[in-house]
């Protein structure tokens, strides 16, 4: 049974609350967590002092740190938060196929953009082949992790023969897959060995 004193211990101090608010605001603005040096600079405190605040917040289950990764401060999700943290896995082509660049960070996305509680991830878009679907160069797409999509849906497609990943609309034609850009200046192309890695369910765009 939880005692009154232990419940009080779970509450952050004034400075810890300020650090927590700064981390959340930084993630909302930038899409990834601040480094310890940035937190220290913001509060004009030493890195060891900031590290102590982070450790204390971790013990109170108010945030966590994914050890071994840069910018790894993660704030927990709760029912009051309008944002949900999902992994930003790297860059995907929405032009000519290129190899996806893996550089995992976390990004906060509006909870309303996630239609289910299943696993989602995000990818930054490079290219203009999907502009007629409202996906511009530099946008971030929200992807539901699934292995099948219906014809005409936007999908993350891995082409094993090329060892490349691309973002296209998918159509099945007998023994091959038709990958269709949403840009009238570009032509569709065909692949025989395509693995669906997810369905696009939303788009984030930074206005700066």
UniProtKB/TrEMBL annotation:
Cite the Peptidase S24/S26A/S26B/S26C domain residue spans from the record. 87-201
Provide the coiled-coil residue spans: none
Q: Does the keyword Transcription regulation apply?
A: yes
What domain of life does the UniProt record list for this protein's source? Bacteria
Which protein family is named in the record? Belongs to the peptidase S24 family.
Q: Which organism is it from?
A: Candidatus Nomurabacteria bacterium GW2011_GWC2_39_41
Q: What is this protein called?
A: LexA repressor
Do the record's keywords include Repressor? yes
Query: Could you tell me which residue ranges the LexA repressor DNA-binding domain spans?
Result: 9-71
InterPro entries membership: LexA, LexA-like, LexA/Signal_pep-like_sf, LexA_DNA-bd_dom, LexA_repressor, Peptidase_S24_LexA, Peptidase_S24_S26A/B/C, WH-like_DNA-bd_sf
| Keyword set, alphabetical order | Autocatalytic cleavage, DNA damage, DNA repair, DNA replication, DNA-binding, Hydrolase, Repressor, SOS response, Transcription, Transcription regulation
List, alphabetically, the CDD domains matched. Answer: S24_LexA-like
Query: Which Gene Ontology MF annotations are present?
Result: DNA binding; serine-type endopeptidase activity
GO term, biological process aspect, one: DNA replication
Alphabetical list of NCBIfam families matching this protein: lexA (TIGR00498)
